[in-house]
Amino acid sequence: MRSGNPALKESTFLDLGSGTVVSRADGAMTLNGTINKTGLLLLLAVITAAFAWNQVEITAEGMTGGLYVWGGLIGGFILAMVTVFKKQWAPVTAPMYALVEGFFLGGISAVFEARYPGIAFQAVLLTFGTLFALLMAYRSGLIKATENFKLGVVAATGGIALVYLATIVLGFFGIDIPMIHGNGIVGIGFSLFVVVIAALNLVLDFDFIETGVERGAPKYMEWYGAFGLMVTLVWLYIEFLRLLSKLQSRD
């Protein structure tokens, strides 16, 4: 079983201590429990995002409140790594991740909003519209997470990760990858491709969470499943911001 989301990979839903699944009598993972915890994580992120949104401001002298953007980005990455390697800690680290990541999302949204008014609201609508559309398609059987589908999405996700990693490394030497990060046809096409792959990762997340429920994964995996889904939603939202900013900069 594969997932493009690094937080949800093969054997994630197994009891790591014994290699066997936990019986429902011991308190197993449920779909409703995972949905409720996903909603709670989103709420926590919205609270801190709203705070950071009001703290970050773009002026002629520069940006104020940048600490929320960088602190949220770095703190969120650290908490995500801790959660991935210590899944049993997810009931604590997943809410912490949501709170910290909210600072980053609120701050970066304010930066984009200052340049392109209305872009944050559009990105939010597109993100949740995509989430619910793909969820309905998955539940109806219109989209099925077959092995070939999973392999294709995972390969594309890995390719995108390598491009972004190369962008960061080359950036330290003042080198930019041409075209794909610009607002030309190639740049917009690249962003559209990334948005599609990020969205398809939601399908893999749905499939993986459903599999965990069927296997009777430990109760704490509800938090972990919610965390993994939120990681994909954050990625999707950021990519929508990037795509919309490229489109609006052409006007």
Topology:
Blueprint: H1 31-55, E1 57-59, E2 62-64, H2 66-85, H3 90-115, H4 119-140, H5 147-171, H6 185-215, H7 221-249
Antiparallel strand pairs: 1-2
Helix pairs in contact: 1-3, 1-7, 2-3, 3-7, 4-6, 4-7, 5-6, 6-7
How many E strands? 2
Q: Can you give the helix content as a percent range? A: over 70%
Radius of gyration: 19 Å
| Strand order in the sheet with the most strands | 1-2
- Biggest sheet record: 2 strands, antiparallel
Succession of helices and strands: HEEHHHHHH
Net shape? globular
Question: What features would you describe in this structure?
Answer:
This protein has a two-stranded antiparallel ribbon. The model is unreliable at 13-25 (pLDDT under 50). It is 71% helix and 2% strand. It has helices at residues 31-55, 66-85, 90-115, 119-140, 147-171, 185-215, 221-249; strands at residues 57-59, 62-64. The radius of gyration is 19 Å and the shape is globular. Helix 2 (66-85) runs antiparallel to helix 3 and helix 3 (90-115) runs parallel beside helix 7. The chain has one domain.
List keywords for this structure.
7 helices, mainly alpha, 251 residues
Summarize the structure.
The chain is mainly α. Helix content is 71%, strand content 2%. It has one domain (27-249).
